[in-house]
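Q: Could you write out the predicted structure for this multi-component system? I'm mainly interested in how the pieces pack against one another.
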Amino acid sequence: MNSRLEQFVTDHREEFDAEGPDPKVWEKIVQDIDPGKKKQSPLVRMDWRRWSAVAAAVVLIVGGAWYFTTGKSMPQYATTNNLPKPQETQAAPDTQNQVAQTPNPLKDSSQTRKEEPTLATIRPKETEKKPDEDNSVNEEMYHCARLVEIKHNQLKAIEKDEPLLYRQFASDVNKLDSVYHNLQNQLPKNPNREQLLEAMLQNLQLQMQLLNHQLDIIKQINHSKKTEYEKAYKTT
Amino acid sequence: MNANAKIAELELTEPILHDELVERCKRGDSRAYGELYQKYSKAMYNTSLRIVNHTGDAEDVLQEAFTDAFRSLGDFHYKSTFGAWLKRIVINKSINQLRKRKMDLIDIEKTNIGHLPDEDGTDENEIALKVEDIKKAVGLLPNGYRTVLTLYLFEGYDQEEIAEILQVTHATVRTQYMRAKQKLLQYLKQGAS
């Protein structure tokens, strides 16, 4: 097989590659790959979301740490915290009632507490702690409020694409929010400041959970849309 | 012999160099893409040009092949050198380009079957071989012959690999190559005389 022609080609192989492509080819390739570079912007947006997730985690950790360090006045709130989970949007009106009611049972419990001497002996300690506690409650509340605000803004991003869904979601959150403002208005008059603040904080946490869940739903919708689009794109 | 030794040496040392450039691309170093293009574009362009036989088509193939290669760099796992991997992409795209123009290999084979003498009519040793003449003669070959001849003679694939690339039998590749070579020598002889 190895004839003269084949040997000649092997010996002069490089000379056969003398032609050069038009420089425009590289420009076109760069243009083709460029959209890939633009794809980095969603990544940056993802980063921003991740940062808010990190912020949420930090707030939760700080909040958790606060719960554990402040000790025993806590458990009752922990249990009420577990009661209402506004995970489903339909459940929101119910939780609103529960949140609205929570200050009352708390008031009751504090009244019964006053009557009991054993608990009364603990109270001085609580009042000693109070300024500190107030501060950290305030701080946590501030963080929660800020987080709710951020998530609210994230939710607003879908207003254009899904106006109906947004309105539904927003009304659910607004119900909780109005309860929050009610509590806030009671705050100057109410002597039971600590518990009221606690209720407000709880309300904010519920708002946060609700918003998280709503954002999850949106993420799922977007994901299914994307996979559908990709399917359609691949089949064509 | 000397050339073969050189090639062997290159094959031993080159992949390591290539790896670094490819790795830089994988890490998203945009300059490395340019270097990789500089390094391979000319050889790949000539490979494609010999198959599609049209500068515009060869440039389209080159563009698509590099774009595809850069995008699927993550799928390249050094089972071969980067050059061999890229060349395979270029060749597949070049053949697709030919098929797009409805130049079917088997049709060409059938139409040309009666036109060639069964015996080896041309004596290789009588013909003066020049690079430019061979290039011209290759360009005159029908698409099917040209593809097989190019893959065997210039790109160094063996006949079984060519059979796999073109999805034809080994025997088809063998006869096609024999006829293509004969026709090429015929053109060279005509050109010389």
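A: Regarding packing and overall arrangement: Residues 83-219 of chain A form one domain.
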